[in-house]
Amino acid sequence: MEETGRIVILNGPPRSGKSSIAAAIQDRFAGVWMNLGVDRFKHMAPQRWQPAIGLRPGAERPDLEPLIVTLYDAMYESIAAHSRLGLNVVVDAVHHDSYSVPRNILSRCARRLHGLPVFFVGVRCPREVLLQRRRATWGGVGYQRLGSVADPVGLWQRAVHDPGHYDLEVDTSVSSPAECADLIERRIEEGPGSAFPRLA
């Protein structure tokens, strides 16, 4: 039987730098590292079900929420299958539970990876830097009303790091993607992660 692959789950709001860290892990770490992030699963869903797994906090689409639960189940079953086949996996995730009712998706996902070597990494970035990155990518629309659905940055910042149980946290405003990858590699070398067993 193949040795199980390691799993690194990068959890943070959009534009926090997760994709760049994932790319650095794929470039720098030994072995094969597959990228099975939320964006990839989101784009596989038909247009009429969008934003699918990428639904932001705010309980705006309760009609989509049962599908979102199933999509996360499917994504994490795929992550588990890759790991059991000996492939390492890096996951660009945006976990939150700010739906119309609690969906407990993160706990469900943690249970699906029971017994596998998982490292849960919180990717943090100050709100001001996230705003700059969003403006550079998408323009400045939709940030005016702080704390409202029109303030996606504030909503993500609050929701994505709840409950905040991580094996490691990195700040992409002070560390480059390569530096974040190095910190993650050192954490892996220290021994098994404990965040996902706690979340399960």
TrEMBL record:
SUPFAM superfamilies noted in UniProt: P-loop containing nucleoside triphosphate hydrolases (SSF52540)
Protein name as catalogued: Chloramphenicol phosphotransferase
InterPro entries noted in UniProt: CPT, P-loop_NTPase
Molecular-function GO terms, alphabetical: ATP binding; transferase activity
Pfam families, per the entry: CPT (PF07931)
Protein source organism: Actinocatenispora sera
Active site as annotated: 39
Binding annotation for ATP: 12-19
